[in-house]
Amino acid sequence: MHLINRYPKVFLVILILIWGLGYPLMKFGLQFCPPLLFTGLRTVISGLVLLSLAIQSGESLNFRQTWKALLISTTFNVLLFFGASAIAVKFLPSGIASILLYAQPVMVGLLAHFLLNEVLTLRKMVGLLFGFLGVAIISYKGITGDLSLYGVIMGLLSALGWTIGTILVKRSNPRSIYWFIALPFILGGTVLFCLGLALGESTTAIVWNLPFIGALLWGAIIGLAASWVIWFHLVRTGDASTLSANTFLVPVVSVIGGTLFLDEKVPVSLFLGGALVVFSIYQVNRPVPKALASTT
Questions:
Q1: Residue 2 domain-assigned?
Q2: Is 1 inside a domain boundary?
């Protein structure tokens, strides 16, 4: 935690790399396991890892004061975000699913203005919209096939879940990040696993080989446990809307990762979309001139 406080920009880069490279690695893991079962398994394992860290840290849970926040976090950060995104990917082309998910920074910018007193300037709003456009351009090659209204709704619910979960962390300012993530992950992951079984996914379809176990453990320990500790800590100590805008880089890293590890071709759209994402992040992170700041 102290290292994250001292080097927030370094850990932001680490977070973007983890999430960006996580998509190709999770796509690899899904070859061996149905989506909701895979999501449920890695979420529960991640929660158990964080639970052990919470116990070792000696941090108090304060369940009476935090149970409402924990329940809301389970609903939005796990069930809606993880569950709805897994379903959206199943019913939608990957490009559409990605575009819908990355409406999140725009949603955070709007809600943070009203709920967190983070001023949404015209420059920041333009930057967020350019970032969203950049993600859309990068993802356009995945926009093929029939659109499912159910899938679109799940994609938007996923983005909304991530948005509300981010705002919640900022507002509640939990004393222990470990407890705040561990319990919702264990509960929500169990629900997602059971939901997968209820929707017809079978445990017999899981191929328990070394590649799957490696992808599962990486996804649980690094892709979820480590990255969400970093994410929630950065959200708690920084500007939520500015931080969310930086996640526009995740699809850029993901496309590059797919090229390096899955032999996918580099789309020309990566260069234009990537340039718009970089411009977006510059606009959102650029400090307001003192002369203008004094007039607001």
A1: no
A2: no
Contact criterion met (CB below 8 Å) for 183 and 176: no
Picking from 161, 172, 144, the residue whose alpha carbon sits closest to that of residue 68 is: 172
Q: Name residues of the chain where pLDDT drops below 50.
A: 291-296
92, burial (CB in 10 Å: exposed 0-12, middle 13-18, buried 19+): buried
The tally of domains found in the chain comes to: 1
Question: Residue 295: its pLDDT value, please?
Answer: 44
- Both tokens assigned to 68: 């409402």
Residue 76 tokens, joined: 């939005």
At residue 94, the pLDDT reads 59
Does 290 map to a domain? no
Q: Containing H/E element for 40? A: helix 35-57
pLDDT of residue 92: 67
The residue segments making up the domain with residue 90 are 9-285
Closest listed residue to residue 281, CA positions, set 116, 123, 164: 123
Query: How many angstroms separate the CA atoms of 21 and 251, rounded?
Result: 9
User: Is 3 domain-assigned?
Assistant: no
Query: What share of the chain has pLDDT > 70, as a percent?
Result: 84
Say which residue the tokens 């759209």 belong to: 269
**pLDDT digit string (tens) for 166-182?**
888 788 777 778 888 99
d(CA 182, CA 50): 5
Task: Give the C-alpha separation, 73 to 186, whole Å.
Answer: 12
Q: How far apart are CA 92 and CA 45, in angstroms?
A: 27
Place of tokens 């020309």: 268
Q: What is the pLDDT of residues 25-58, one digit of tens each?
A: 777 888 899 988 998 999 999 999 999 999 998 8
